[in-house]
């Protein structure tokens, strides 16, 4: 389970170190940095798929995503930067930790000389980086790793500066970390418009993990019914829509989502469902997955939902958090209150802006989790 998330110089997250729990609820006013925190988590996951550089490009490049304020963070303006540009991301569990440091390349004649480079990456045992606990360490293009006896191997792996060691190194500890990060799931792009993928009839295969766009929703729900927690599926639907039940139509290997409700002579198919009803069913499929990931992150799951659906959604999230670590990013206070009431151990993190910098409300210097960045 992730215990600590650290971000430095990413958008408004100039210097943020957060404690995480089995269920973590991130909230705050509009513009407080919630979306930036969500993107930072996704960027970490992208590194394991060698997609961090393209992800930054989609956001406008490194210069567009860097903290735009002064280096000191004391509110002064017009200062000249004296330190190397560094966007740093990292996390730690009880067993291991990982951090990356992205910066600008040395100017050259290439048209790609604005692509960010991995200046440093480190993987270590335990929750805090120490020289004695390093397992793999990357400086520039060179990756060094310890062998099975804990001795630094003489084998050196040279990789391109735009590639992460998570995707390019074959060391056992790095491979293990890569697969664990690749299991993380993010849901923030569910479409509910008339042409949404989830409304279409399509060929279905056994689907233990819902796609991030929800295109395989009928197959995912049927998979839960056959090899997952069918009782939890029925309960989650009935809590939200009393007396209702999900049915999956099947013809020529094509799956169709249907919702049978009391008082109707026939079930409604996906094309007839309201946006809120469809989104709730997508969240049911995501949270009741028969193949739980190490981390599941929901970004503003309350979108399009009627307020009456927030308590059932909170119950669904609380149930899922007993099997998988869940992070919920939301600005819906009723959802925050419901989650906190259902799980006394849930961590509610309220982000606020102070001099344009995102901070954790109420966090003092001594409240921050212990964290050390690898030096260049």
Counting structural domains, the number is 2
Beta strand %: 25-35%
Trace the largest sheet across and list its strands: 2-1-4-5-6-7-8-9
Order of helices and strands: EEEHHHEEEEEEHHEEHHEEEHEHEHEE
Principal-axes geometry comes out as globular
Protein name: AAA family ATPase
Pfam families: AAA_21 (PF13304)
Keywords: DNA damage, SOS response
Ordered list of secondary-structure elements with their pairings:
Layout: E1 2-10, E2 13-19, E3 23-28, H1 34-47, H2 52-58, H3 62-65, E4 87-93, E5 96-103, E6 117-125, E7 134-139, E8 142-145, E9 157-158, H4 165-168, H5 172-182, E10 185-187, E11 202-203, H6 217-227, H7 230-240, E12 245-251, E13 254-260, E14 268-269, H8 275-287, E15 295-299, H9 310-320, E16 325-329, H10 333-342, E17 347-354, E18 357-360
């Amino acid at each position: 389970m992730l215990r600590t998330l650290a971000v430095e110089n990413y958008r408004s997250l100039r210097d943020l170190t957060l404690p995480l729990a089995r269920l973590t609820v991130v909230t705050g006013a509009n513009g407080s940095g919630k979306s930036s925190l969500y993107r930072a988590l996704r960027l970490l996951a992208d590194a394991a798929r060698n997609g961090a550089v393209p992800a930054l490009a989609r956001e406008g490049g490194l210069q567009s995503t860097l903290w735009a304020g002064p280096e000191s963070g004391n509110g002064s303006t017009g200062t000249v930067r004296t330190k190397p540009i560094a966007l740093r991301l990292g996390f730690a569990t009880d067993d291991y930790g990982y951090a990356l440091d992205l910066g600008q390349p040395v100017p050259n004649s290439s048209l790609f000389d604005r692509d960010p480079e991995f200046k440093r990456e480190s993987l270590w045992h335990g929750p805090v980086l120490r020289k004695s606990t390093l397992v793999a360490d990357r400086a520039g293009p060179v990756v060094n790793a310890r062998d099975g006896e804990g001795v630094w191997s003489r084998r050196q792996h040279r990789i391109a500066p735009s590639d992460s060691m998570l995707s390019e190194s074959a060391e056992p500890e790095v491979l293990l970390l890569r697969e664990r990060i690749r299991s993380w799931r993010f849901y923030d792009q569910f479409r509910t418009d008339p042409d949404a993928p989830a409304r279409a009839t399509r060929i279905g295969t056994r689907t233990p993990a819902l796609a991030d766009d929800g295109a395989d929703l009928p197959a995912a729900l049927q998979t839960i019914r056959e090899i997952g927690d069918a009782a939890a599926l029925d309960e989650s639907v009935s809590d939200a829509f009393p007396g209702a039940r999900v049915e999956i139509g099947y013809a020529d290997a094509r799956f169709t989502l249907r919702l049978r409700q009391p008082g109707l002579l026939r079930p409604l198919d996906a094309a007839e469902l309201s946006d809120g009803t469809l989104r709730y069913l997508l969240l049911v499929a995501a949270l009741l997955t028969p193949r739980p990931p190490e981390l599941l992150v929901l970004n503003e799951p309350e979108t399009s939902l009627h307020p009456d659906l927030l308590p059932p959604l909170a119950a669904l999230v609380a149930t899922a958090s007993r099997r998988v670590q869940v992070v919920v990013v939301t600005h819906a206070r009723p959802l925050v209150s419901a989650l906190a009431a259902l799980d006394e151990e849930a961590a509610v993190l309220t982000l606020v802006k102070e001099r344009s910098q995102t901070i954790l409300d109420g966090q003092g210097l001594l409240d921050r989790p212990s964290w050390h960045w690898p030096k260049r």
